[in-house]
Write a sequence for this structure.
């Protein structure tokens, strides 16, 4: 698996993923896809695209359990069951979820701007992974500019420049335009995975299903 800018796109399978960094099924789905890519042995270029689960979220966020119960009408028991399931799934896939009573849902508009900036720097994918870990494992506030700049710095990006990007909302319009593009093209939930710019698959599909999809695509190209 590689960054899209590293290879001639005719030599690799392009995979576009529309997702949010506070979406647990987005990282689960990606980890499943990652294993499937390794199993099939295909060379894939991953490109991440923005989606906000909660674009109207208050600046200080909301308690995660309360948010889930309010938004989806689930009970506390159902919420805990979902957390337990995600924690187990993550463990199987090599990703650690650390949910707590203090976990918060936050807005991710700033985080998406940072990912956009990291693209030309060759750090889009590492930053996306670092943001998933910072949120789900470390409980970091991904709506805080200082926290986001620290995460950028931790993967080798210029922390000071990252902070300027965030303070200036430098890529706000770019993110709005891209979010609008995906909504206009029917993306209402995430993860949404587009294979070879033609085949849309939504939701975390599991390693075996992703592997089957990849094999069909590879065999189709060979034919």
């Amino acid at each position: 698996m590689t960054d899209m800018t590293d290879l001639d796109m005719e030599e690799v399978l392009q995979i576009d993923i529309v997702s949010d960094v506070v979406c647990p099924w987005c990282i689960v789905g990606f980890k499943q896809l990652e294993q499937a890519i390794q199993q099939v042995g295909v060379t894939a270029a991953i490109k991440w695209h923005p989606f906000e689960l909660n674009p109207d979220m208050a600046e200080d966020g909301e308690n995660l359990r309360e948010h889930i119960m309010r938004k989806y009408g689930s009970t506390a028991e159902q919420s805990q069951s979902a957390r337990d399931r995600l924690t187990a799934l993550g463990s199987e896939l090599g990703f650690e979820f650390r949910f707590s009573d203090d976990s918060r849902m936050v807005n991710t508009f700033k985080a998406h701007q940072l990912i956009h900036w990291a693209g030309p720097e060759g750090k889009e994918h590492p930053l996306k992974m670092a943001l998933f870990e910072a949120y789900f494992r470390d409980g970091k506030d991904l709506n805080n500019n200082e926290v986001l700049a620290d995460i950028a710095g931790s993967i080798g990006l210029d922390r000071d420049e990252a902070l300027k990007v965030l303070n200036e909302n430098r890529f706000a319009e770019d993110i709005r335009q891209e979010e609008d593009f995906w909504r206009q093209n029917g993306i209402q939930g995430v993860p949404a995975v587009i294979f070879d710019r033609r085949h849309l698959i939504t939701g975390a599909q599991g390693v075996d299903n992703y592997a089957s999809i990849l094999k069909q695509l590879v065999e189709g190209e060979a034919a």
Summary: Strands lie at 2-3, 13-19, 44-50, 62-63, 104-105, 192-195, 199-202. The longest strand covers residues 13-19.
